[in-house]
Design goal:
mainly alpha, Arc Repressor Mutant, subunit A, Tetracycline Repressor, domain 2, 2 domains, 11 helices, disordered N terminus
Length: 224
């Protein structure tokens, strides 16, 4: 489910595992060095924010020169937007679209996507923290571009998520698009308020989310 076209090559998707374990940065490929920059940039902006993250600090953390960072990303704004696109595409690509479309129940699809996100969250926690931090940034040009990209992302996600959904199970007069939007707000807020990656047992947390979804399902579906 590729929702956005990004300048970052997708063969660097699993950053930590794709970077060669070498102490000599010069022996790495260009893509591997770029992957280090991406990882350092996401981590820095996730924990320090956009304004307090500098190209120099990101370069130092990645173990590369500042000029190399600027070679790939002309300025910090360009880097931030590239990292945002990279992160959203990474999340969308963990969802196997062919498997998703075999599920015709909307709530089954939501559960399927949620589980995939949790798997990625445990593997790459900084990705979600970075995206959440970007939503809070107040730098005007960055804020406007992020909001625009989010709108595009949500629209395309909704188009895919509602494709071939069995709408016959919904009560008369229910707007399925609004139901999907409501569920999106619920799951987004749930992920922000629950430190899933810090939990030794994420099953308890996902069961809680399932209980909320079950309430919505009961409200919107016809009685069996």
């Amino acid at each position: 489910m590729k929702l956005l076209t990004v300048s970052v090559s997708f063969d660097m998707m699993l950053m930590k595992r794709s970077v060669p374990m070498s102490n000599n940065i010069n022996s790495m490929t260009d893509d591997s060095r770029k992957a280090l920059i991406i990882e350092a940039g996401i981590t820095s902006m996730a924990f320090k924010g956009y304004k307090k993250s500098s190209i120099a600090d990101i370069a130092k953390s990645a173990g590369v020169s500042k000029s190399l960072v600027l070679y790939h990303f002309p300025n910090k704004y360009n880097l931030a937007i590239s990292l945002f696109n990279y992160s959203t595409t990474l999340i969308s690509n963990i969802i196997p679209i062919d498997q998703l479309l075999t599920l015709t129940d909307l709530f089954d699809r939501i559960n399927f996507v949620t589980q995939k996100k949790i798997e990625l969250l445990k593997e790459q926690p900084a990705i979600f923290k970075f995206l959440h931090r970007m939503l809070q940034e107040d730098e005007p040009s960055l804020k406007n571009e992020v909001r625009k990209l989010i709108s595009m992302n949500q629209l395309q996600s909704q188009q895919v998520a509602l494709q071939n959904i069995d709408t016959s199970r919904f009560k008369e007069g229910i707007d399925v698009n609004k139901v999907f939007q409501m569920i999106t707000y619920l799951t987004d807020g749930f992920f922000e308020s629950h430190p899933i990656i810090e939990s030794e047992d994420s099953t308890k947390i996902t069961n809680e989310l399932d209980s909320y979804l079950a309430l919505l399902k009961k409200s919107f579906y016809k009685e069996d």
